[in-house]
Amino acid sequence: CFPLFSLQTDVRVFSLNCWGIRYLSKHCPQRYAMIGDLLSKEEHDIVLLQEVWSEKDFLNLKKKLACSHPHCHYFKSGVIGSGLAIFCKHRIHDTFLYRYSLNGYPYMAHHGDWFGGKAVGMAVIKIGSMTANVYVTHLHAEYCREKDSYLPHRVVQAWELQQFIRHTSAGADVVIVGGDLNMHPQDLGNRLLRAYTGLRDSYLETANFDGCEDGMTLIADNPFISKKELVPFEKGIRIDYILFKGSSKTDMHCDSMSTTKGSIPDHPFPYSDHEALTAELRMEPHTPTEPGHDKKSMDQDSGKVAELVDILTEARTEVKVGLHCAERMRYTATRTGIMGLALLFLELAIAAVPWLALGAEQPFPRTSFYLLAALCCAILLTTFLLYIFYTMELKSLQGAEDQMRLAVGSLQEKLRGFPLPQPYSTHRKPPEGQEPSAFDPEE
Amino acid sequence: CFPLFSLQTDVRVFSLNCWGIRYLSKHCPQRYAMIGDLLSKEEHDIVLLQEVWSEKDFLNLKKKLACSHPHCHYFKSGVIGSGLAIFCKHRIHDTFLYRYSLNGYPYMAHHGDWFGGKAVGMAVIKIGSMTANVYVTHLHAEYCREKDSYLPHRVVQAWELQQFIRHTSAGADVVIVGGDLNMHPQDLGNRLLRAYTGLRDSYLETANFDGCEDGMTLIADNPFISKKELVPFEKGIRIDYILFKGSSKTDMHCDSMSTTKGSIPDHPFPYSDHEALTAELRMEPHTPTEPGHDKKSMDQDSGKVAELVDILTEARTEVKVGLHCAERMRYTATRTGIMGLALLFLELAIAAVPWLALGAEQPFPRTSFYLLAALCCAILLTTFLLYIFYTMELKSLQGAEDQMRLAVGSLQEKLRGFPLPQPYSTHRKPPEGQEPSAFDPEE
């Protein structure tokens, strides 16, 4: 069927982190059944799911939603998968997956993020005559806000996410992004994403919101949430989002937005440990504003660019912290490896003395000898693998930092093109004894 | 300086695989000096280098080319790096790196591709008023054409390369791709890349070619090439390319193309084991052809789509071969791991018998006991790591296959929209007893 072109098109978008770890997540099969019932009843245009870790669960959902959502895609990546799935009423014409270059550490097996192969999945969908680029993603979790060792990884993921969206969406009429960003609204990565892409937050854009206080999506009232994990945010946090933007051809608005509120009427437990998001988006052909670049919009633009430069500088600092940390870890691995090697040589030397003294009795107890040798070999192998891993982490961090530096340079070039506005002078005089520019592209 | 807009803009593009493995590649420092001299003398607009494995060499080149090519970017990835570098006369506004999901095996250390973190790097450049998206890439090497175990990896790389170029270039006026594709002109991956993106091959597009016979870039006359590696292609092969395309706004043509021919006048050896490519590209504002979709262009379009479906089907077959292979390898790793575990239990059981018999003498010689235990543990660890690696390989191959299947479905949908042309019937009647469609999107 070919929908006739109308001036206005409505799209209902749903996003949920399903918490679908088979045998580990509580009531997993029952919750998937509930999610399937909800989706087939509600018939959203676009359904963006995260943490669908098992392909079997995806296939069950696919079977159940064959009528309501005939088109779907499951994004595969990493050891377990990316956990990302899209269900859609409209045909999916194309898909593309970008795997984040950094995603935690394989030896942090209890956190499990590394095995999940976190990524951003894209689907190109035609809604009527409009092309929508739909993105679903899930960023690295935050396990401890005070001492978040994964922050540089998450900032680089946010950086790569904005790059991916910005560079792949040039041909789209509208852009829709949904997922679990694992970032609070004002967190660095979130600001970076929104400022760079111009994406708007459904929760902030709608006058018609029905859901948890402050749009929270991980709430204390959810029975699957342990309250002490949320401290110091007693009521909950907002880390799941539906973002959107139009284009030069299409305007996009959020008419209403809702979230589930912990418990579900007539059900013993909620759909997941996260709350589900639903946004009603409206697309219209773009109505051009009055022509001519007036002074105000010019100032606003330069203000935005200057804000972006500030956010990027903050992000670079965070990435540099990650770089120092990775360098220290690699140094520790190298040193431990060298100590293991030295120990092995020492042991061999001690064992060799009586052997060189031709026939003198071996003073080294055999058991200790073999145990020590095995320990040395284990140390050598582990530190070698860690060395390789940290080198790759370093390369990714350096790569992101290089790209950010280049981006700052390009933005500053743009700022120089603007007439100097009041609040942001691009040629601030540096304090004496300081480098001329904090973001020198050749630094 | 802001170049004035003229109706025609010329761009000179250079591409070279530098073979820059420090201490291993022959005459590496001397060759880099030669390359630096050439580039600073020739002043190409865009220089795309591959196999610049050491960042130090990149930084030396950067210093040397500071006047001729003030803008540059080095793409970091993997353990050693991606080896990719761009030097440019025009400002680089933005960069983006896509790491291929498959790139050989870490245990094939003598081939080294896995450690290189093969990727495609993108740079957004403004040339006059035009936006050029420039890509540089290096695909997995082909070590044995008859029994090429890396073919599925290279096909998936070509698939991801075309996805990346297609999705990121929508906003560009022109697209320029250079690099070592490690594929012959008619190889599957090359056909996939060209057919899907519409990229044109400089060598085939120009009437004005000066270089090796058949545009070869790896030739027997190059003193760094061992002739037996090229068998059965005695004279050489063409695996390096400069590809380009315009857009709806800009036409692009290749005025001339040249390659080096093995030896360099006044120098004792060539720049690299690969030949260097130079293309002179010309950009003009697009001149629209007569309006109206005539029957012929419609037929051509449907012909192209049908050709793409055929190529995709071939690619899917190749990826499936890779899938079977990866599954077999993972099965072997699992079986070996289980055997290692069984051996360990057996050993412990034998050792436990006299211990249970309270004080009876240990019949197991200690040396053998510890050696065997160490062997079992080594087997277990290795097979565990291999299992994880093969699972990731499987996920990537399955992911690519899924995306290809979806793309075939979408293309067939498109074909159904065309009026039935003579050479390609979209509703071919299948032979009796055969499935209705070889590319059923729901298959």
UniProtKB/TrEMBL annotation, chains A, B:
Metabolic or biological pathway, per its Swiss-Prot or TrEMBL entry: Lipid metabolism; sphingolipid metabolism; Sphingolipid metabolism
E.C. code: 3.1.4.12
Any GO BP: sphingolipid metabolic process
Key words of the record: Hydrolase, Lipid metabolism, Magnesium, Membrane, Metal-binding, Sphingolipid metabolism, Transmembrane, Transmembrane helix
Pfam family, any one: Exo_endo_phos
Subcellular location: Membrane
Disordered: annotated segments: 418-443
Reaction it catalyzes: 1-O-hexadecyl-sn-glycero-3-phosphocholine + H2O = 1-O-hexadecyl-sn-glycerol + phosphocholine + H(+); 1-O-octadecyl-sn-glycero-3-phosphocholine + H2O = 1-O-octadecyl-sn-glycerol + phosphocholine + H(+); an N-(acyl)-sphingosylphosphocholine + H2O = an N-acyl-sphingoid base + phosphocholine + H(+); 1-hexadecanoyl-sn-glycero-3-phosphocholine + H2O = 1-hexadecanoyl-sn-glycerol + phosphocholine + H(+)
Residues spanning the membrane: 338-357, 369-390
Magnesium is among the record's keywords: yes
Enzyme class: hydrolase
Cofactor: Mg(2+)
Name the record gives this protein: Sphingomyelin phosphodiesterase 2
Source organism of this protein record: Sphaeramia orbicularis (orbiculate cardinalfish)
